[in-house]
Amino acid sequence: MNDAVLALQERFGDRLAVGAAIREQHGRGESYHPGMPPDAVLFAETTGDVAEAVGKCHEHGLPVIAFGAGTSLEGNVSAVHGGLCIDLTRMNRILRISAEDLDCTVQAGVTRVQLNRELRHTGLFFPLDPGADATIGGMAATRASGTNAVRYGTMKDAVLGLTVVMADGSVIHTGGRARKSSAGYDLTRLFVGSEGTLGIMTEAVLRLHGVPDSIVAAACSFPDLESAVRSVVAVIQSAIPVARVELMDEAQMRAVNEFSRTGYPVADTLLFEFHGSPVAAADDMRRVAEIVAGFGGGGFRTASTQEERSTLWKARHDAFYATTALRPGARGWSTDVCVPIANLAACIEGARVALSATAVPATIVGHVGDGNFHVIFAVDPGNARELAEIADVNARLIDLAHSLDGTCTGEHGVGTGKRGYMDREHGEAVRVMRMIKHALDPTSILNPGKVLPDG
Predict the structure, then answer these.
(1) Residue 295 in this model has a pLDDT that exceeds 70
(2) CA distances from 186 to 137, 190, 199 (A)
């Protein structure tokens, strides 16, 4: 056993696990990427625990990987070079809520559902909703967003400040509670999206929002995917402040009906949600209904009660598991790209054409209000030919997104899955990223093998 692991076991006792099952569990997320287990797993309970463990790993040159809920999709948490996995799920305390200032401070292991449950009595909520009940630390690490991003932004907009353990075990605090500052470099946004390669986030100061007086959801079906996407572009260009607008293609609706025992029309579908006063929300919904009707959108169905809305959005949140359930023993391969809204129709149509060339079950879903969409494949993880085929489709989709001024990932992060596209997307800027990485983590112990390509 590694000397660092032995030292950590002596210090942390039963909170340091070396059993094969636990290590396997912590070596993978939800994706098809092969699991790569760490040498040991530490269940941290305080920032001090993390700092002490990272400091010890720094002494011995042992890699360190932060782990939250394990819902990542691009191999973000795999222990490529072994090492210590620091599980932050026991760091699940909500440290402070300031209703007057619309902010809070939480530990990294707090989940978004847990936070919103705690906020119920305050009239506030945390709007970011990636679907899975991810931890705040994991969402910050991948710069996640989700279904509410079109109105409330992504994690880079939600995080005001951070507590971060650096590669040598020292602890820093970035940002703060002030809503704006021009003092120095914006380190908070440097760490948000860094996937644990620059430091381990243990606490976050988050921006909150008031719960709207009225929340109304709606769904409508379209004769084809292009019409649905073009209606979204028209809605966004009309400056109607929709809170959510989600796309689910015909294949996805069929999969959801089978998986969740629902009876939604099997057609290309848009889901909307409107926030505001009762009058404003109703007016926004009326205007959207008029626009989508001009693109063939029909059967505009509304849901105003909490129960009705939950049922409607459950269909969207079940998308990943509904797709993988199409094949016994399948594993989900979910990829995402993001393009400027004006190029969205062309990108999704290109994705449709690419999917027509494969027999692997696949669905399209997306946060189309901000140009971001996902393709979910139900792959046979033991079929090398099939995996190669889907890798080719994925590459073609990313090439298309780049040709349309887009990005290889809108919210999943880079992990191991999309490292190969970083040079193409960022060019000479990758050299600067490597300089930052080397300055903050000179021995490269923090989540090595992720984000930046070799070179």
Answers:
(1) yes
(2) 18, 7, 15
* Spatial separation of the C-alpha atoms in residues 43 and 19, rounded to whole Å: 13
pTM for the predicted model, two decimal places: 0.94
Residue 132 has a pLDDT of: 85
- Residue 1 in this model has a pLDDT that exceeds 70: no
Per-residue confidence (pLDDT) for residue 131, from 0 to 100: 82
Class of the CATH domain delimited by 94-210? alpha beta
Q: Do 214-317 and 321-403 show the same overall fold?
A: yes
List all residues 6 or more positions away from 381 whose beta carbon is below 8 Å from its beta carbon. 32, 330, 331, 387
pLDDT at 393: 95
Quick one: pLDDT at residue 317? 87
pLDDT interval class at 91 (50, 70, 90): very high
Helices 225-237 and 278-293, interaxial angle, to 10°? 130
- Cα distance between residue 360 and residue 61, in whole Å: 42
Query: Which CATH fold topology does 214-317 show?
Result: Alpha-Beta Plaits (3.30.70)
Residue-wise pLDDT for 317-343, tens only, equals 899 999 999 999 999 999 999 999 999
Q: Are strands 64-67 and 84-87 parallel, antiparallel or unpaired?
A: parallel
Maximum C-alpha span of the chain: 68
Write out the H or E segment, with its range, that includes residue 352. helix 344-355
Q: Where are the alpha helices (DSSP H) in 201-305?
A: 225-237, 250-260, 278-293
For domain 321-403, the CATH class is alpha beta
What are the structural domain ranges in the chain?
3-87, 94-210, 214-317, 321-403
CATH class of 3-87: alpha beta
**How would you class 239 by CB atoms within 10 Å of its CB: exposed for 0-12, middle for 13-18, buried for 19 or more?**
exposed
